[in-house]
């Protein structure tokens, strides 16, 4: 088995505050890997370190078999594309211009786009269903459309790994599913490794091959969805009453937080898969 990412004894501090503590895990190539956990558990810090934005205090990260420290920013951008949590395009670039920005790691400072770049940009826009918007101003699009444009730009980098920090956080249900379906297409059709931070445990359950559950900077559990998303684990970590059953759409867990007025029903006999 080949690994897209290997992390060994990773530590990170903000000032004197320990944010990540002795993290070790592997991500197989082509895996849909989702990082979940309560607020403040270190999820965004972790994905920024994997993207090369933050430098760890200690530990080792290998990307495609090479130590992260050995990559130049330009070479790392050829391996990894990063979609941040908050995406808002405020400058009046066209969608095509924004997507073509993904080609910058493959060119010199003064190089212009060639026909290959244009063809790749149009393929990325078609893949994310924004091709019809190519000549629209990106700052005039909806949040969901802008998100798909940014993902098209990330695809245009031709990476092996795509990192996403809460890509569905500000979207309605329909756009959440579109973005998640798109991530699954990247995995199955483009053979990319998808690494995503998410607060939505139900979306994680539906799409992830592997889930990493974090709390207070440490790994609580890592593995297949059904092994991680159990009510005993989730109640302890999130500190609230949780019902876990099986969704009628398939054999994966469905997580429902239990309001106080219904807790007497589940107190005597917790329902779970």
Quick structural summary:
With 273 residues, the chain is α/β, with parallel strands linked by helices. It has helices at residues 43-50, 73-79, 95-100, 115-127, 143-156, 173-189, 201-207, 225-228, 231-238, 263-267, and strands spanning 3-14, 17-28, 32-36, 58-63, 66-67, 80-83, 161-165, 193-197, 210-215, 218-223, 242-246, 253-257. A hairpin with a 2-residue loop joins β1 (3-14) and β2 (17-28).
Give the SSE layout.
Layout: E1 3-14, E2 17-28, E3 32-36, H1 43-50, E4 58-63, E5 66-67, H2 73-79, E6 80-83, H3 95-100, H4 115-127, H5 143-156, E7 161-165, H6 173-189, E8 193-197, H7 201-207, E9 210-215, E10 218-223, H8 225-228, H9 231-238, E11 242-246, E12 253-257, H10 263-267
Parallel strand pairs: 3-8, 3-9, 6-7, 7-8
Antiparallel strand pairs: 1-2, 1-4, 4-5, 9-10, 11-12
Helix pairs in contact: 4-5
Please characterize this protein's 3D structure:
This protein has 273 residues and is of the alpha/beta class. It is built from 10 helices and 12 strands. A 6-stranded mixed β-sheet has the order 6-7-8-3-9-10, with helices on both faces. The protein has a 4-stranded antiparallel β-sheet with strand order 2-1-4-5, covered by helices on one side. It has a two-stranded antiparallel ribbon with strand order 11-12. It is globular, with a radius of gyration of 20 Å. The relative contact order is 0.15.
């Amino acid at each position: 088995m080949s690994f897209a990412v290997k992390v060994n004894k990773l530590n990170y501090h903000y000032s004197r505050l320990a944010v990540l503590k002795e993290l070790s895990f592997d991500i197989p190539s082509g895996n849909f890997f989702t990082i979940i956990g309560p607020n403040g558990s270190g999820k965004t810090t972790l994905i920024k370190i994997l993207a090369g934005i933050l430098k760890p205090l200690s530990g080792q990260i290998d990307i495609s078999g090479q130590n992260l420290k050995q990559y130049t920013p330009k070479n790392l951008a050829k391996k990894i594309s990063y979609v941040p949590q908050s995406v808002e395009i405020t400058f009046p670039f066209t969608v095509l211009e924004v997507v073509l920005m993904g080609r910058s790691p493959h060119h010199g400072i003064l190089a212009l786009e060639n026909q290959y770049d244009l063809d790749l940009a149009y393929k990325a826009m078609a893949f994310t269903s924004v091709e019809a918007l190519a000549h629209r101003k990106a700052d005039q699009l909806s949040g969901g459309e802008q998100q798909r444009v940014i993902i098209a730009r990330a695809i245009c980098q031709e990476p092996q790994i795509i990192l996403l920090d809460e890509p569905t956080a500000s979207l309605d249900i329909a756009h959440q599913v579109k973005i998640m379906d798109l991530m699954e297409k990247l995995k199955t059709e483009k053979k990319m490794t998808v690494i995503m931070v998410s607060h939505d445990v139900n979306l994680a359950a539906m799409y992830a091959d592997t889930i990493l559950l974090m709390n207070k900077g440490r790994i609580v559990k890592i593995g297949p969805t059904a092994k991680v998303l159990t009510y005993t684990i989730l109640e302890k970590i999130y500190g609230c009453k949780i019902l876990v059953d099986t969704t009628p759409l398939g054999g994966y867990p469905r997580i429902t937080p239990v309001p106080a007025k219904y807790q007497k029903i589940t107190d005597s006999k917790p329902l779970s898969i």
